[in-house]
Amino acid sequence: MPLPNLIAFYAFYTLLGILPSFIWLVFYLHKDVHPEPNKMVLKVFLAGALMGPVAIFLELVAMRVFNLTPEWPTFFATLYQNTNLFLLNVLLFAPLVEEGLKYLAVKWQVLKNPAFDEPFDAMLYLVISGLGFAAVENLLSLFLAPNLTLQFALSQTLARFLSATFLHTLSSGILGYFLARSFLDFKNRRLILGLGFVLAVAFHSFYNYLAWLMEINKFISLAIALYLILMASLVTWQFQHLRKQPAICKVDRK
Length: 254
Fold this sequence. Notes:
This protein is mainly α. It has nine helices and no strands. It has one domain.
């Protein structure tokens, strides 16, 4: 393929891979009556995206620790043939690592910023971090496909827009809500944040379980849709609840 065509090929599919995150980003930013600086939004989005490769590395290391195969090449060759190890990653390693890293991206870029003093912002920035993370996952789902065609790319992008990308916004939003609540109850902030992290991981884990079941039974897709609607209802309530809270909160900047 000539170089100009190759550049156009990768540029097109890169934009397509980012599109689901961009659409959800616009949707969530419209919820904020006091718009965040574009520079800060971009920084948090990119920080979330940078956590994508870190998550892949940590999940592989975690699976390697629990795998008794002595050689790395053998480990990679049999990675997806070990059902128990695969499920352990899907249900435990991945949710723990991904939710933790999305939070760290926000802590890294936002929580030490003196301008950050609204509870609502905590939830919004966690969602933005989740969208950056999801963008990397979406790109990998396209470029690692064995046969990348336009039809496959369009269907994959739509499916991930409605499912995996949406899931990342919701689980991040749940954690963001508890992060905001921890600022309003500073004395119990660690307990509240810990509870939020556990809930975000649990919601993420159960979604992964349903997605795994869908490989066996396609009717599970209806259960996934209902589950995401339930999560979306919860996150919507959380956004509305935070709007009623005082605009200024005490933030631990240590």
